[in-house]
Design goal:
With about 120 residues, this protein is an all-alpha fold. The chain contains 4 helices and no strands.
Length: about 120
Amino acid sequence: MRWLVTLLLGAVGGYLASRMATRSELDEFHREFQARQRPVEPPPAPPPPQPEQAAVAEGIDPARVMLIGAAVAAYLGKHAVVRRIRVLGHRSGDPWALSGRATLQASHNVVQAHR
């Protein structure tokens, strides 16, 4: 019976000794880490976008840029910055083809009966 008590005390003592050693190593590592740490400076802020200059370069007058920005702000309900404006033309380029496609798509109105 004494050997069981000795075994248990040895196991508990070994556990406590290893725990204390690990804790002291972690504390030392933490102190070294804090000593090496330097304050991190935030990166410089990017310059604000210049939407009117880009739009004027593409041939869009500043008044239209202002109207587009106002429409976006009215739709979103808050101030918005227009970063890019692209002028889109007809996808196929042929107005007759667009008209025919619209007529064909309009003829597909299918009425579904509710069950």
